[in-house]
User: Fold FkbM family methyltransferase from Actinomarinicola tropica.
Amino acid sequence: MVGERRGGLPRGGHLVGEGVRHPHHGHRPRRAGPAAEAPPVKLDVASLKAALVDVLPDPLVYRIAPLIYRGQEPELARLRSFVPRGRNAVDVGGWLGPWTRELSRWCGRVDTFEPQPDLAAFLRKVVPANVTVHEVAVSDAAGRTRLVVPSSRHGENALASVRPGAADADPDAIVHEVDVVRLDDLGFTDVGFLKVDVEGHEREVLDGATALIGRDRPRILLEAEQRHLDTPLHELFDHVGALGYRGWFLHGGGWHALDTFDVEQRQTAHLDDLTGPDYVNNFLFVPTEDEFTPTT
Assistant:
């Protein structure tokens, strides 16, 4: 039904801007004199994007999500410059499928992991035949766990977490009991690209994929943020480096070597504008034996 998000599909996820003011309503103030100007009306980007997700048909939401998402993740617009064409891809943290959709048009097969029931149901309805949606969480040990979905009205469902204690900070959070798998147990072959967006659980996902990483040597895109970690972000970078990888990040329209990344400068200083151009949270890792270097 148009106008109602079927199955309680969340409103907006990462499409929603943070810290955006609502527009003023009512009549425009009268001018006090020739030099007086009415205060500018700020577009409520958060409400606009959430409304689009709410009223549009599912297939159209799936189609436009990558287009809107590119404004917040410029790496998505450059996907074809660093993802090996024709090889298989794994998308851990599917959400509304912006990465899944673009990967499905460039890679052989895509396996997308999305443990939130509503999001997984949405994806299963809209993905093409070369995509398999797995309604499970990914970690370093198989079993069951609690998936905590924050109660925010601003699409924070994209920040769902399996980290211990995640529910303590939000007593109104929705908690799902979900199955957990290791990527190494699933028999994947020829994986050329691995994208991980799991809100602080990156190390565990990688530890459950050491055989896959050692065998297929995929290029890896990690979304990683100090605000979601209990240990220094650079320890995660060092761990990936120990697997035989070099890293880069995208900022200001160009790629920069990971050893120039400063957490304070590129994350902590911009916590009040998480969707702005100066907040960097995506990191591309390439095997050291791979001659590829991102330049575009």
Q: What stands out?
A: The chain has a mean pLDDT of 82.
